[in-house]
Amino acid sequence: DVKVTQSSRYLVKRTGEKVFLECVQDMDHENMFWYRQDPGLGLRLIYFSYDVKMKEKGDIPEGYSVSREKKERFSLILESASTNQTSMYLCASSRIPYGGENYGYTFGSGTRLTVV
Amino acid sequence: AQSVAQPEDQVNVAEGNPLTVKCTYSVSGNPYLFWYVQYPNRGLQFLLKYITGDNLVKGSYGFEAEFNKSQTSFHLKKPSALVSDSALYFCAVRAYGSSNTGKLIFGQGTTLQVKP
């Protein structure tokens, strides 16, 4: 019954490595989002995408990029991992609001990334 | 600016007592409001939402929330707390902007601790 799948629950990478975090949803949602979650800072939006090959920067895009080649998959890329990117990363998806309805998000289980 | 505030970092309540987790919001259009819960090392799970209609919204696990337009609040409530309700709770509101993507703005989160 899993609808948003993040490829890894825990990940340990070395400083300077290129890191790929994968997210797949099976609900045919248009929107997909990447957040990072840190204690005391809540959820901070990194990037989001509202269509294939479309992307928009969120609040903290520096050091990250994204790829959305297919509707169901949204990848977060850490170009050169640094220790300050150690965090919990959450992927979410949602439908475009329609007719006054707003559907909210469906979240994946999260990836806890440690950069050493 | 559009925002969500959860004024309490932590709420402590004894099992069997009623609980309230507070949320206030500021948006530039009709408020579409959500509550999510997060258990340790997991993603966020949807609890309930307010779109329109009755100000008292019922959701999962016996939770409910009261929408108050004049106070711009959407407090989460439960008549009788369980130890298993202990978790991190997030309030969210739909963001309004140039693109109607249904992006949500999240509060900082409130840790609920229910003691036996």
Q: What is the average of the pLDDT values of chain A? A: 92
Main structural class of chain A: mainly beta
Give the helices and strands of chain A as they follow along the chain: EEEEEEEEEEE
Rg of Cα set of chain A: 14 Å
Taken in chain order, the helices and strands of chain B follow as: EEEEEEEEEEEE
Q: Characterize the main sheet of chain A.
A: 7 strands, mixed
Largest interface: A-B, 31 and 26 residues
Quaternary status: heterodimer
List keywords for this structure.
heterodimer; A: 116 residues; seven-stranded mixed sheet; four-stranded antiparallel sheet; B: mainly beta; six-stranded mixed sheet; 0% helix; 50% strand
Describe it.
The complex is a heterodimer of chains A (116) and B (116). Chain A has 116 residues and is an all-beta fold. Chain A contains no helices and 11 strands. In chain A, strands 2, 4, 5, 6, 9, 10 and 11 form a 7-stranded mixed beta sheet that branches. In chain A, strands 1-3-8-7 form a 4-stranded antiparallel beta sheet, with no helix packed on it. With 116 residues, chain B is mainly β. In chain B, 0% of the residues lie in helices and 50% in strands. In chain B, strands 2, 5, 6, 10, 11 and 12 form a 6-stranded mixed beta sheet that branches. A 4-stranded antiparallel beta sheet of chain B has the order 3-9-8-7, with no helix packed on it. Chain B has a two-stranded antiparallel ribbon with strand order 1-4. Chain B is globular, with a radius of gyration of 14 Å. At the A-B interface, strand 5, strand 9 and strand 10 of A face strand 6 and strand 10 of B.
Topology summary:
The complex is a heterodimer of chains A (116) and B (116).
Chain A: E1 4-6, E2 10-13, E3 19-25, E4 31-38, E5 42-49, E6 56-57, E7 64-70, E8 73-78, E9 87-94, E10 106-107, E11 111-115
Parallel strand pairs in A: 2-11
Antiparallel strand pairs in A: 1-3, 3-8, 4-5, 4-9, 5-6, 7-8, 9-10, 9-11
Chain B: E1 3-5, E2 10-14, E3 19-21, E4 24-26, E5 33-38, E6 44-50, E7 56-58, E8 64-68, E9 73-78, E10 87-94, E11 104-106, E12 110-115
Parallel strand pairs in B: 2-12
Antiparallel strand pairs in B: 1-4, 3-9, 5-6, 5-10, 7-8, 8-9, 10-11, 10-12
